[in-house]
Amino acid sequence: MEALIRDMGYAFRRLLAQPGSTLIIILTLAFGIGVNTSIFSLVNGVLFKELPFKRGGDIVEIRQTAIKAGVDNTGASALDVKDFREQNRSLEDVIEYHFMYFFIAGQSPALVKSGIVSANYFDFLGVKPALGRSFVASDDAVGAEPVVILSHEFWNSHFSADPDVVGKTLEMNGKANRVVGVLPRMPQFPEVNDIYMPTSGCPTRGDAEFINTRSSRMMSMYGRTKPGVSLQQAGSDLDMVAKRLHSTYPADYPAEAGFGVKVLSLQNELTKDIRPSLLLLLAASLLVLFITCTNVVNLTLAQQSRRQKELAVRAALGADRIDIAKKLLVESMMLALAGGAGGLLLAYFSLDLLTSFAATFTSRASEVSIDGQALAFNLVVSVATGLIVGLAPVFGKQDIVTALKEGGAHATLSRQRQKVRKLLIVGQIAIAFMLVTGAGLMIRSFVALQRIDPGFRSDDIAIATIPLDWNKYDPGAIRNFVRELRNGLSGSPEVQGVAFTTAYPFGSGIGVSLGTAVISFDDRAADAGGGKRVNFRTVSGNYFELLGIPLVAGRYISDSDDENATPVAVLSRAMAEKYWPGESPLNKRISPDQGKTWLTVVGVVQNIKGAGFDKPPIDEYYVSYAQSPSQSVNVLLRTKAAPNKVSALVKAAVARVDANQPVTKVTTLARVMSDTLSTPRMLSQVLSLFSFLALTISMVGVSGLLAFTVSQRTKELGIRMALGAEPHAVRRMILGQGLVLVAVGLVLGMVGSLLLGRLLASLIYGISSSDVFTFVLVTFLFLAVSLAACWLPAARASRLDPNAALRTT
Amino acid sequence: MEKSAVITIEGLSKVFETERMETHALSDFNLTINRGDYVSISGPSGCGKSTLLSILGLLDSPTRGKFVLNNMNVANLDASQRARIRNKEIGFIFQDFNLIGDLTVAQNVELPLTHRDMGKAERRERVMACLEKVGMTQRAEHYPAQLSGGQQQRVAVARALVGKPSIILADEPTGNLDSKNGDAVMDLLAQLNGEGVTICIVTHDSRYANYAKRVVKLLDGKVVTDSLAAQVEAA
């Protein structure tokens, strides 16, 4: 212990004696470790950590599918939930979930998002309310007293954390709901909601006819496997249940739709879309850590070269390799732990950024934190870094006699160390090249995505979302609301055009995204192409004109397509070509409700991108708002006014029509489209940051190595100059040595990048993973930056005074 | 027959300036070295020997005065011009050999030729000829660390010879050698001079100074004696 304290004191004095290099090393390590701690926190919180519920890792999603109808998730009906719950043998329990918006009364109209859950929901998750009680079985009964449980956040914001809230009422859509509990602060599953209510609280789910209609499917089902039951076993078990149901109720599970059931790990399902991106970030951050470590090892090796004589003297006086290793290790550990502490600060300050990034793609964002696991990771990485940095210089042959000479008058370079340093530099450059190429590919892919023509105009289009109260708005009232709102907005000088839709392009979520319907055709039998699920959206007159969607055939939907006219549909070109290949679909008829209503096709419009820039155009059809009124109202405005002005304008216009009607969201179409690119954008930005830093660190490494080489070879350079080497020849020689390392690193980096590209293939769009332009550009970038990095030490070498250089030792 | 001058120095001064003082290393210095000469320059420490050798070797520039090397005025040239002339006209032998540890004996000897437009085969031929002249052919592929001090200095002599310079400048060439090896190196230089090579050696050892045909003694940056070695011995 005494020896350790002595070594620490010595190391501390040594580090303080060279504050510049000590600071550089600590900052380099802080950056490398900090980046890794941050990314680990993100990846751990989102991907690796078990769901924070009772045996969260065993929770599964039970998903009904109708493969032949092209439906990956049909949802579950109340009877489905009941039967799967009662007939399975592999699950402990089954819960159900869906959500809907309610209006709450008050001074300013507002919406709350409510999770509609089975009574066993919170017991299943192992969540005990912070106040009051959980739901009980009787709460699910039809006609039960309306009750709600508040989320912790809603309790704080709406009830100011009133400790006596239990028993009070919350009026929603004109109905009083008694508060029976408040949840603790917790990550919500599977989505964030303001409140929760039992199934009886939902006007649809609580309806007796809906409950008894097996084909009324809209809920999600979850279960938890019994201990020892695998996902495959649970799948087989539920498959048997499903087959039994299909044979017992063939009308509700038509064979032509291809009904089936999948049992999926919820943990994987919640994060499957973002998993490749997060793993890519984790890999990139580990590469950055490698670069920072090798850079620090290189710096340390340079310092050790200067200390060779000191270490040789210690060895000559009896210190063995372990004694010397201990001294070096104490020093490197102090540096690594200081770097680790700095890294922790960096991670802490980047946490908000990471959490908001994670929130764009997963409900698990709230679980991203610098917790015990992140601290442990930070400590492990710091200690491992300290070990690598401290022990790397100790390996290799130690010749005391040579070392003693090397520090003396006959100084020559230690070839062995020089080789190690060169190898490290080559490795750094190769990895930096891989990172820069990866970032380059992501940026090019992002640019390609942005350049995709979505098929409609998005400039100067504002969107306001206005979900109407279903208690108040029947079809007639909706038509009146839309008509009056259109008149109100059209009168404004700042509005050049108005249209309405249930679903705007790239919209997602209830009330803004596409609807789906299983359609029938009057010109063919169901088994000849009918019974297919197709997307649709409801639009008013002027919708196509406002968005500039080109007409291919027939006509657009217009205001004259009202409730008194023949119901019409306009098809996307993709749908027209799919169902009427080589012939005109005009005047053909389709039905979204098994023949109750027939829509006459009056037009075909060009395809638009609506599901994502990188997704192919989808089959879809458009119906008239006046003929199919919906409470999901989205107003599209062509205006050059600023978003805040548009918001005021729409709210005022809505208030003139209905003072109690809230406007939940005002945005622009350009913003919505931009938001869909948030993941590739963030990935490009983070990788660019990593690659910029990796490039900088590796070039500082090359420059530092050359500068060190020049300082170590001053006498040799003096000799060469004395023998006639001209300054430019010396400069060329040093440049050449640096550029050879760079060239070797680039070749290895290219090989690595080609391999990396294959892994990136699923994340890039519009370009090849071995995109020649990116590779050539990055190569030139590296050559240019390398030339600059090597130029400084080379120029300094060429300016050496040979007379003085010859006198150096 | 009158010998032609390889080096002519007239009124040369070298002043080192620091913030506090000026040091006159050489003052109004005059010297002529003819082709085929073997000149030793000696004197006490600080007399200006090394400064003179640096200027003669174009490693340093004089503050003022005339310096003609092979009929070229070389007093005020830039670094590149000095390097080119050094390469062609001057061969160096240093006290501590100054061989490059990472290069083999042959590569060390070849160094001056690498700065000339000369083919590899010709370079190799000249390197081997010089190594043969100093008796180091068998060690061509060895590294300096594998040689004794005397052998290293012989390699240094070969390197000085390989470019066929106008003059060889030797700075205390025996300083790091024992007397046996020192004698051997001096014998080698004498032999080369006998073959017509012009040599200027700086030494503080009077025993080795007398190997030269002409002895120049310096004191405080000025020539105090410039006489033939025979006269020195007679005196």
From TrEMBL, chain A:
**Residue span, ABC3 transporter permease C-terminal domain:** 283-394, 689-802
User: Domain MacB-like periplasmic core spans what residues?
Assistant: 22-238, 492-652
Q: Where are the transmembrane segments?
A: 21-43, 278-301, 334-354, 374-395, 423-443, 686-710, 739-760, 772-792
Topology in membrane: Multi-pass membrane protein
Keywords, alphabetical: Cell membrane, Membrane, Transmembrane, Transmembrane helix
Q: Which InterPro entries match?
A: ABC3_permease_C, ADOP, MacB_PCD, Macrolide_Exporter_MacB
List, alphabetically, the Pfam families matched: FtsX, MacB_PCD
Tell where it localizes: Cell membrane
Cite the PANTHER family for this sequence.
ABC TRANSPORTER PERMEASE YTRF, MEMBRANE COMPONENT OF TRANSPORTER-RELATED
The record's similarity note reads: Belongs to the ABC-4 integral membrane protein family.
What protein name applies here?
Answer: ABC transporter permease
Source organism per entry reads: Tahibacter harae
TrEMBL record, chain B:
Name used for this protein in its record: ABC transporter ATP-binding protein
Signal peptide location in the record? none
Q: Which GO terms describe its molecular function?
A: ATP binding
Q: Which Pfam families has this protein been placed in?
A: ABC_tran (PF00005)
Q: Where is the ABC transporter domain?
A: 7-234
The answer to whether keyword Transport applies is yes
Q: Keywords assigned by UniProt? A: ATP-binding, Nucleotide-binding, Transport
Q: Give TM segment ranges.
A: none
Gene3D superfamilies in alphabetical order: P-loop containing nucleotide triphosphate hydrolases (3.40.50.300)
Organism for this UniProt entry: Tahibacter harae
